[in-house]
Amino acid sequence: MRISIRYKILISELGLIFLIAVVFGVTSYFLAVRYQKKAQKEKLELILEYEKHIIEMSLSNRIKLIEDMARSNELKIYSERYIEPIIFQYFVSFEKNFPSLTYVNKNGMEEVKVVEQIRSWNLKNINDSIYLKNALKNPNKVIISPVKYNEDLKMLAIEFIIANYEYFGDELNFIIFGSVPLYDITKNISNLKIGESGFAVLIDIKGNILSLSKRNDIIKTILVENKKDKIFIKKVEALQNGFERVNVMGIDSLTAYSPINGMEWALMIAMPYDEFMVLPNTLKNTIILISIIIFIVGAQISLFLSKSITKPIKDLVSVTFEVASGNFSKRTNILSNDEIGTLSESFNKMTENLEKTTVSKDYFDSIIKNMSDILIVADKDFNIMTINKAGIDLLGYSINNIIDKPLFDFIDKNEFIDSASSVKIVTNEEFKNFEVNIKIKGGKSTPSLFSTSVIKDKEGQIKYFICTAKDITERKKAEMELREYTKKIEYINRELDTYTYIVSHDLKEPLRSINAFSRFIEDDYADKIDPSGKNYLERIRINTVRIQSIVEDFLEFSNIEKKIINFENVDVKKVLDDIKLKWDEKVKNMNGEIVIHNEIPVIFCDRTGLADIFGHLVSNAVKFADKDTLRIEIGSSEENGFYKFYVKDNGMGIEEKYFKKIFGIFQRLIKREEKKGTGVGLAIAKKIVEIHKGKIWVESKHGEGSVFYFLIPKNKDVILNKKGEIYAKQNN
Questions:
Q1: Which phi-psi region, left, alpha or beta, contains residue 39 (left: φ > 0; alpha: ψ -120 to 50)?
Q2: Which pLDDT tens digit goes with each residue over 483-504?
């Protein structure tokens, strides 16, 4: 039975509407589930990050505490004088964070142990402790033990261990053991409530459960049954991040998991899948009803539209047959303002474009002919079919000696172009930017970047290879020159390092001899040398000492980059406290004070380098003080991605014309007889700041004091990236 186009359209539209209704319903349902799953994922990951942060902060705080203890004056005094009341009271003050603290001497023997504010006499030799040995291998670094039963606290606990070594040596001073109940670290997880029945689990890499929300007991290992869940547990135990639907603790759940930084622990936050599906299931019936309404309304509209579509389509089909037969001048006359009219207009534009395309081949041929790079078209067997003018000119052969020749007759064989090349290209369908040597007439060759791609027929079989080659002779020459230049620079730098070492070493010994013998002359011939001679000898000693200082400062300046290697998070306030302690007595003797303003940040830098910067700036302020009362102020702020520090004094000040000169090596603004120093301090400070990818400058008025500013980037990637900007973009 023949069905008219009208009814075909009607039937197809009804089928399409039905499909749309079904797709709408299914899509809406799955989008709702997907949206809910995304929202649940974000919620669980937010909870996960928060709980992780609490655990990591708890661990980090204790690490910092025990590091501070190892550097404290109380432990230093005890290690030197063995005054037990001092260390006992000091340990008791940390009872909240470390219920059990133990001082172990360099021989591995426990000397002082305080458990919950009580002096313990259960002391023992712990030389065989694996955690002690690990701490001894990592001087001045905190080592954290796995979870184990603590006999002193009578519960599961972890230990924080640090071996205190001399800062500039390898001599062990003492070891500190700080024990913390596991519950103190994980209590937030134990009390955590997630929705109606969600839960959190903390496990270690062996699968042991360390903490479980809504449970007080510790289960030995996490239990799984099917293969998928076992794979999931292996991911968690391998300290990976993720979000999956798996069976956890016998409950089908959506689970987010992530490792705890610095520990062999992983935290999982789970939401039962049944609880998650409550909202999507309530939307199901509503979506079904909307889909039925869409189908009914669409059917009515389709019945109406099918009547108005039939005639214009017949006219369009008639014109299409004529165009298909080659009559590109034929046009449709459908003038309706609906989609059929738009289709008719587009059809007319298409036929116009077809007419233009038939006359544009010469245009594209001209482009290919005048390309500066080689273009070759080869058949499926790599025989050359077409080559442009650039290729003919480079190869040096006539067109007749190139066409139908194998492509690889003109390319040297190497690791890329060999007998297997065709297999590589056919398999990968493209072969991009590989360096090859193209053989040119006369037996020579030129380096080129070779690329190829394929054109396939309707059956997907390779029909042609489109190959391009770019001459890179000049680039290869430039690369070779750059490598040679780099080698010369490296050689010069090595020679400079050797020269600096030799000169400084050879200068020190004669300088010491001059100093010593001038003193011997003064002592042995005191009765034979008049005051003028003694003055000359004194000036000799002063200048030899000065030369020694210059040599040592020059060495320090030359070796700054070798010293700045330990980048870490540094509490600047502690560095400044040490600086203040060092200079406090001298400043007070000058009727002065050092003021450190609040809100000094923790930054990523080299601790020793930062201390050198502040030390040189404070030394400079003390050296050039000229008022009855000296005042030095130190503070910081944040500005455009940088930490901005300043050291302000009320000294003699600097004229603006010397602002840049003072940061040069051995640059002094006054005679050395008036003020001591070699003029290297500010140069060292400037070099350290620049190694941190920052900037240092001074603002001052002569007679009114000076303010030295320097910037350190807040982003540690800028500091560690050797290609990063050295100077801040501001204040240039």
A1: alpha
A2: 888 777 766 656 655 656 555 5
pLDDT at 246: 82
The answer to whether 103 and 87 have CB atoms below 8 angstroms apart is yes
Q: Does the fold of domain 361-471 match that of domain 71-185?
A: yes
Cα separation, 726 vs 694, in Å, equals: 6
Would you say residue 729 has pLDDT above 50?
no
Domain ranges (residues) in the chain: 71-185, 191-276, 361-471, 477-557, 560-720
DSSP secondary structure code for residue 187 in this structure: H
- 674 pLDDT band, cuts 50/70/90, is very low
As given in the structure block, the two tokens for residue 371 are 């390309």
In whole angstroms, give the CA distance from residue 153 to residue 144.
Answer: 17
Reduce the DSSP state of residue 583 to 3 states and report it.
Answer: helix
Mean pLDDT of all residues in 608-628:
88
Most confident of 1-15, 55-69, 520-534, 537-551: 55-69
Domain 71-185 falls under CATH 3.40.190.290? no
Report which DSSP code applies to 157. Answer: E
Considering only the top CATH level, what class is 560-720? alpha beta
Q: Which amino acid is at 539?
A: R
How many alpha carbons lie under 13 Å from residue 730 in its C-beta half-sphere? Answer: 11
Can you tell me the distance from the alpha carbon of 516 to that of 541, in angstroms, rounded to the nearest whole number?
A: 8
Confidence of residue 462 (pLDDT cuts 50, 70, 90): confident
DSSP label of 373: S
Per the structure block, which two tokens stand in for 284? 């199901």
Helix (H), strand (E) at residue 63: helix 5-70
Q: Per CATH, is 361-471 categorized as 2.60.40.770?
A: no
Domain 191-276, CATH among 3.30.470.20, 3.30.230.10, 3.30.450.20, 3.30.460.10? 3.30.450.20
pLDDT digits (tens, 9 = 90+) for 548-564: 656 665 565 566 666 66
Residue pointed to by tokens 């940061």: 663
Residues 6+ apart with CB under 8 A from 312: 334, 336, 340, 341, 344
Contact 688, 652 (CB under 8 A): no
Sheet containing strand 430-439, strands side by side? 384-387, 374-379, 462-471, 445-456, 430-439
Long-range contacts of 337-346 (CB under 8 A, 24+ apart): 338/308, 340/309, 340/312, 340/313, 340/316, 341/312, 343/316, 344/312, 344/316
Q: Calculate the average pLDDT of the chain.
A: 78
How many helices and strands, by DSSP H and E, does the chain display?
Answer: 19, 24
Residue type, 119: R
CA distance 655 to 669: 10
* Contact yes or no for 706/651 (Cβ under 8 A): yes
- 177 closest CA partner among 250, 223, 236, 111: 111
